[in-house]
Each structure stands twice: as C-alpha cells, then as structure tokens.
Design a protein that fits this description.
The complex is a heterodimer of chains A (292) and B (300).
Chain A (H helix, E strand, L loop, with lengths): L25 E5 L5 E5 L3 H20 L2 H17 L1 H10 L4 H21 L3 H5 L1 E3 L6 E8 L2 E5 L7 H12 L3 E5 L6 H11 L8 E4 L3 H10 L5 E4 L4 H11 L5 E4 L12 H5 L2 E8 L12
Parallel strand pairs in A: 5-6, 5-8, 6-7, 8-9
Antiparallel strand pairs in A: 1-2, 3-4, 4-10
Chain B lengths: L12 H11 L6 H13 L1 E4 L7 H12 L13 E4 L4 H7 L6 E6 L9 H13 L4 E5 L2 H6 L2 H17 L3 E5 L2 H4 L2 H13 L4 E3 L11 H18 L4 E3 L7 H15 L11 E3 L2 H14 L12
Helix pairs in contact in B: 1-10, 2-11, 2-12, 5-7, 7-9, 9-10, 10-11
The chains are: A alpha/beta (292), B alpha/beta (300).
Chain lengths: 292, 300
Amino acid sequence: MERIEVLKTYKIFIGGQFPRTESGRYYPLKLKNNMTVNVSLSSRKDFRNAVIAARGAFSGWSARAAFNRGQILYRIAEMLEGRKEQFLEELKQLGYTPAAAKKEVEQSIDRLVYYAGWCDKYQQLFSSVNPVATSHFNFSVPEPMGVVAILADESSALLGLVSVIAPAIAGGNTCIVLASESKPTCSITFAEVIATSDVPGGVVNIVTGNRKELHSHFSSHMDVNAIINCNSEKDFNKTIGENASLNVKRVFTWNKNWSDEKEQGPYFITDLQEIKTTWHPIENIGVSGIKY
Amino acid sequence: MTYDFRQSPVVDQVGIEERVARFNTRSIKKGSKVQALKLALNMIDLTTLEGKDTEGKVTQMCYKAMHPHLALPDLPSTAAVCVYPTMVKVAKEALKGSKVKVASVSTAFPSGNSTMQIKLLDTKLALDNGADEIDMVISRGEFLKGNYNFVFDEIAAIKDLTHKYNARLKVIFETGEISTLDNVRRASDIAIYAGADFIKTSTGKIGVAATMPVTLVMLDAIKDYYFKTGIQVGMKPAGGISTAKGALQYLVMLHETLGNAWLDNKWFRFGASSLANDLILQLEKEAKGVYFSKDYISVD
C-alpha cells in the first residue's frame, strides 16, 4: 500500500512554543514541488503576545554569563548543522538552486559561530575607563537595550534571519522577528532549531505574516526598545521612524547583502547596546597613585 | 431563621466548569472595555500583607490607591487598601480626605490558629486604629472536622464587634485549603448566615488562590440568600487575578450571575496587588491606541 506523506504544519514561534496565529488567518504559499503551504498570517495580537514573551525572557537572558550565551549560540550552530539536509530541501522548494541553498545554510552556520565567539568579547572592546577631572573612577560599559523588533530581509530565507537574530541575542537582547513573507518556511524550521538549542523560551520569537500590515504595530509598541528593518521600503521606514518616536526606540535600517562576509561584525552587536557610565567615588586606585 | 449547614446544596462541578468556560468566551471591546477596566480598577483592594511591610511602603501604596496613574487623569481610585492591623493607622493617615477605605486583616491572619480571645483583640486593635473593613479568616481545621457551629460562632462573634464600630466584615475561607466546591458552598452558607458582609476566597498566602469556579459557587450562594431574604452580600475573590483580561472575565461572571446591583465596589472587590498595573496598561492602550509598557507605570 502506498504511504501518505505526513506534512508539517507551519505555525509560529512565541515564548518557546509553536502556537497557531490567534487570528486563525493563513496565506497560501506555492512550493516548487507544486505543494501549497498554509502559512500563518500573524496579527497584531500575536505580536503583542510575542512582546510579552520577549519582555519576560529579557531579565533572565541578559543576566546570563556572557560565556554561557556564547555556548548557546554555538549550540544553535550545532543543531543547524545537524539538520542541514532538511534546510537544503526546504530552500530548494523556495526556489534556491542546490549550490545557492548549500551556500545559504553553510554561511548561516558560520555566522552563528562567528557571533557565538563575540558574546563574551565585545564588552572588553567597547568598554572604557574615562579620564575625569574629579576624584571619581569613571567607566562606561555596554548593556543590552531590551526587546528588539526585527523585520527580516525579504529576499533571504535563512541567512538574512540568522544575521540579525544572532547579534541581537549575542548582546543579551530578546527579539521578535517577522520572517520573509515570500520565503517563510525556513524561518519556522529554524525556530525548531532554536527550540532545541537551550535558548530559553521567549528570547527569540518568530512570526510570519504581512510586513505592510505589521510594520506599524512593530514600531508603535511602547514595550519595544529597538526596531530593525532589513528592507528598503521608503514609506514603511517613514512610518517606522514616526512611530518609534513615541518611546524613542532606536531605529536601524539594515538593508544589507548578508551573503557578503563584510556584513558581520561587532558593530551589529553594539548597535543594540546602550552605554552605561558609572561615576564611582574612589580617589586613588593604582599603585602609582594615578587618578583616572 | 434556622439553617442546617449539613444540608447545603451540593455543587455540580462539571456544570460549574462548563458555565465558567462560557463566561470566558464573551468579547468586550472599545467603550465597554474601557468602562469595565475602570470599574475593575475601582473595585480593587490594593493589598500588601508581608512581614517586611513598613510605614513607607504602606504610605506609598496608599498614594497609588488614590492616584493609580497620573498620566490618565480621569481614572478612579481603588476601593480600598488592605493591610495588617498595625499598619491601619498609617494607612488611615495617608488616605485622609480620599474615598479610599482601609481594610485590615485580622483573627490571626493568615492561619487563623489562635484563641477566640486573641482573635477578638486582634480585630479590636484594627478597629480602634480606624479600620473601615475587617478581613477575617475562618478556622479551616474546625471546618474540615465538621465543627460548623464553631465556625459559625466565631464569625458571629467577630461580626458583633465590627458591627459596634460600623465596620464591614469580610470572611475569608481559604478555598485552596477547604478544597472541594461542596465545602466552598457550605462555608459560604455558614458565613452568610453568621452575618458576613462580604465573602472572600483566599488569603493570597498559599499556592491555590481565587479561581473562577470557586467564585461562581460563592456567587450562587449569595444569589440564593438574596432570593430568600432580600439581603445583599458582597464577594471578594483574592489572589491570582493579575491580568485585566482575567478581571473582565470575573466581571462578566458577576454580571451574569448577580446582575447590575452588584457591579459596584460596595458589593464586589478584587484582592490584588499587580492587577492594578495591568489594568492601567490596558487603559493606556485604549487611550493612546498603541500597546503600552510597564516602564511608564509606578511599580508600587
């Protein structure tokens, strides 16, 4: 007897779980093998739920040892490597050539390893001891901003997603990502990778849906601290900028070619950091009597 | 009027749960939602009952009770604050000139394990300090032993005292400890017939606090008593209600069980501390049209 293949239901990823969109809405996505996937058309309420999850996860994630965050990012890379074949197949169904699919997956894995290494290093490079004219020990350190909303690159199924999630969480932030609307399937499979990589629930939340509908909600929510748009729509960016002013969110347009090796670096991490400066009332702290 | 508490009606648990599930499907939006959120805020007994309470903390909480969120000027105050007897004076002073009442727990709260003499003194202390309302606990051990007369008598004795001071009496069952819905119904009948002005679910000091099924059983007891005597008794679910959505579901249940006459903080209260901030969060969202952040709301 011929076996009926069991196909995956593509749901969304909020707080470490895979709910369906609360709106019950879907949009059809035709794959290269002529199968049609029903992809969740997420609503503003899904986004709100994701923000609650991300806010809840923030204190724990940002308080983790930086080294431990590095271990977890590396673990994501390990899991992705282990499920390479699945991603290659999914990318092909989204229209990637075998060569392009292989490059996309391998670059994604490498990028995760790259940012895993940065987790406990950017702090040294971007901290400073500042000379001041009073009897204080004055120093500045980067701290994570909080909840970051991300509108992922429309043109990339996996690498564009990984390239923004990795620097955000490497720096101790939590995030909500709207996946590429035309290439959403890989993002949900990537969520399965995250769910099995010791990433605490709520640190990464991935929703699928329509950027036109959601960009204003992503940018207006008062409990979001930064927003990144990886696409170049001028009118969206205008709305995002206006809405972000409500609570002075940091706004970034990262419209990059992510397959370029240059589009990775510690500055993607520090963009999502605030600098805290401390004035510590100590006079002489060095053997030489130097006053900083 | 005589009433044999062994004959209290038994509760159909499945029926209660089904009915509660129905309440939770009601959709309240826009103007009605704002009205309900404000009503819920106005029904809160803002509570601090901790060993670490200080005069400063109580004063701060009283300010919050009078002015829940200054950025929205037309918000109501909460109904009352709820504190330990020793903090009543401080609260009374801080709330001077406002409509916010001072409720005090008493009778060896939260366990209720003490002698009647001490329970009366405890209550008298709160009343002498100026408490407008007394939240007493029943002796759960005696209740579970079947010693219903004991429970009835202790409630009646405290009621005697509060009545002299013109204070209202809330009776806490600690429903998490008396476990079954049948017991909840029986405790409700005992308290109501002994003269309780309010019946209240929980102390907030154990894991299981107010739930909707328990509250519905208590509302049913209030309803039956009202039909029999024409006397209104208040209801106060306490503990575990921390979201605006949850509070609105309680209000729906209240409205559909007891009707409009109870939609007032004279007859219904929420015992809560973090609920106020979630209500403010939702009210801000309704006012500004965007989801709000707790960064802009005072913690205490």
